Write the structure tokens for this entry.
Amino acid sequence: MRPRAWSALALLGFGSGLPLILTDSTLKAWLKDAHVDLATIGFFALVQLPYNLKFLWAPFLDRFELPFLGRRRGWLFFTQALLAVLLAGMAFRDPSGHLSLVAGLALGIAFVSASQDTVTDAWRTEFLPTHQQAMGTAVHVTAYRIGILAAGALALVLADRAGWRVAYLAMAALMLLSLLGTLLADEPGDVKPPRSLTEAVVEPFRAFLTRRGAWAALAFIVLYKVGDQLASSLTVPYFMETGYSKSAIGLMTKGVGLAALIAGGFISGWWMEKWPLKRGLIVCGIFQIGSTLSLLLPAFLGPKLSVLGLSLALENLGYGMGVTVYMTLIMRLCDRSYTATQFALLTSLAALSRSLLASPAGEVAKHTGWPVFFLICAVIALPGLLMLTRYDRWGVPEELSSGSEAPGAPAGP
């Protein structure tokens, strides 16, 4: 692909990451500043529900097309512009006097943001040549993380120095960058939408579940990353109990951890330009298990800053490698006639399983101790890895030769 296509991919990834934290931790910091009751702040976690339920309206995005820019780019432009407007609207509301309105705006932002994510995932799946799906995923995830960092660290700095109105107006302005990504992007070609809304709702399920190896593929999606996701859900409390300060954890996570995660994604993407997907899943799965075990280093070597940096670097390296091949598999499993719906379904399934399994993690760690807990996390990653012995029976489409294009995907601008 040409530079213009990579630029579009990065800007769309940035636009997907930006709104997430603005309705979560950054918003909660604003609520705390506005002296909102802590119990009420806790209920704002429900604002994130649209990200888990986006498969419910994904068929609508697959079926219908706005009268400009094409099916995927039209919805992208609309959701991105609406997000900028909603963020600007939130900037002019004070939670201390308009809490219900702020909650409504936050829920609206989450709904539109989840819709944008659904269309972005569909566009990426349909547009990227098969041999560049992994590298494209690495670019998307990197830009997504930068968006999260801007909505977290940058927004907090702006709020501290100039107030929350300035912070949210700045985020609304940054959201406009994603519109540039949409204008730079090409509309995926030769992908026919469903002929009716009924087809858009029913066929994604039927088409997937009647394919060879569908249930095994679904089980793998649930199991492949469960070990490192379970481990990462409690890393901050673990590091704090080990003796590290909150400042040290925050600085190392945003610095060494983020750099390692990005590096892991690009290493995996580079490998996948040369390797078949099965090999990538095996190698990155082994790295994931090793990265989980690296969290044991502080428990045995003590609270040294260098040990924290090494542990976070290895943990995030493995996580970044794993998420790249994992998302590439999901892209390959999607039927291009129903990309938005199937991608949303598969990622929602992964998110639901992660939430359900992570919820008792604290109780397990409390009763077993940290070393045993992380060993358990490494062991429960093994079933997913072992399932790859039957990968050839799942009906995952074969990779095209390097330089070939995925069906329906243009060569790029």
About this structure: The chain has a mean pLDDT of 85.
